[in-house]
Amino acid sequence: MDAKVENLLSEVLQMPASGITDDLTMKDVDAWDSLKHMELIVALEQSFEVQLSFDEIVAMQSVSAIKRVLRERGVTG
Amino acid sequence: MELRGKKAIVTGGVRGLGRAMVEKLLENGTAVTVFDLNAAGLDELRKEHVNCVQCDVSDYEQVLKATSQYHEQFGAADILINNAGILYSEPLIKLTSEGVAKHDAGMWNKVMAADLNSVFYMTVCVVEKMMTTRTRGVIVNISSVSASGNAGQSAYSAAKAGVNALTAVWAKELGPMGIRVIAVAPGFTDTDSTKDAVSEAALRETVKKVPLRRLGKPAEIADGVVSVIQNDFFNGKVFELDGGLIV
Fold first, then answer.
1. Cα distance from B93 to chain A (closest Cα, Å)?
2. What pTM was computed for the model?
3. Which terminus of chain B has a lower count of CB atoms within 10 Å, N or C?
4. CATH of region B7-240, choose from 3.30.70.930, 2.60.200.40, 3.40.1190.10, 3.40.50.720
5. Boundaries of every domain in chain B
């Protein structure tokens, strides 16, 4: 699941996958604004077949938080 | 979107086109709440089991309070129809018996507040709740064929062009969240507000330009609104219902 998330982030934020580290946050990436965040959420929802709550969407402001929320939702593969 | 069992807010739903939309939604099993200024009209509507809120939608403080109360009572709305507004005609420069006069700046501001600001105020408050509850809702903005520029309607045309622009912007912003935003642009329709704002002579001339040679009926516009709500792939576009006036 980790690699899939990183690839999605790389694709949506248009930055190299090598730069997608767990401690990367919205604040660190200029392109990761609220509109891009919603694009990312939709990509995650489609890719992992989950519907995230708004609280989860708000919480997912770093790579580690995205992975944590997805794990909590039972996403493994 | 299936209308039965859904919750809709219609602004300016007491009379004219708004009233026709309210009736059409009720026929389809939608729970309707009307936001309107007209207290007497709201009293009449309450008798038809319509939830009514007295609110000046051009006043942001009132909209904040009224939408907050609505959300406490009903949760997120599924449908918002931004219909309230003023149809106003005045040339940029008028010839009067005393000479020339400028378009009234106060009326410019009043029309922009009623026809454009209100759409922003209602939508920002209603969509916030839709988003936080992940409600896949629909926003319908009532525009006008005047958005393309109608001589003698500076404020009204500008406001409606703004409404069309907001429709496109919001469709792009909110579409990924499953919220659709649509505009419906009626041509000249047979309502009191049309008769109040457009002289009989001007209306006769306009009707001659409509291929169908008549004004639209409020029920026909309401049918169009319902159709675009029901069609889940209609998004970000202006649905023109003008009898072929602009082709």
1. 43
2. 0.92
3. C
4. 3.40.50.720
5. 7-240
Nearest chain B residue to A34 by CA: give it: B173
> Are the CB atoms for B215 and B188 separated by under 8 Å?
yes
Whether residue A54 and residue B132 make contact (CB cut-off 8 A), yes or no, is yes
How many interface pairs between A and B have CB atoms less than 8 angstroms apart? 15
Binned at pLDDT 50, 70 and 90, residue A77 comes out as low
**What value does the mean pLDDT of chain A take?**
93
pLDDT band of B229, cuts 50, 70, 90: very high
Neighbours of B211 (CB within 10 A): 10
Residues of B forming the active site: 156
Element (H, E) at A64: helix A63-72
> What CATH number was assigned to the domain covering residues A2-72?
1.10.1200.10
Across B21-40, average pLDDT: 97
Chain A neighbors of B173, CB-CB under 8 A: 35, 38
SS3 B91: coil
Does B124 lie at the interface with A, CB-CB under 8 angstroms? no
Q: Which residues of B touch A53 (CB under 8 A)?
A: 134
pLDDT bracket for residue B69 (50, 70, 90): very high
So what's the pLDDT on residue B197?
79
**CB-based contact, A59 to chain B, within 8 Å:** no
Domain range list for chain A: 2-72
> Per-residue DSSP letters for B109-135?
HHHHIIIIIHHHHHHHHHHHHHHHTT-
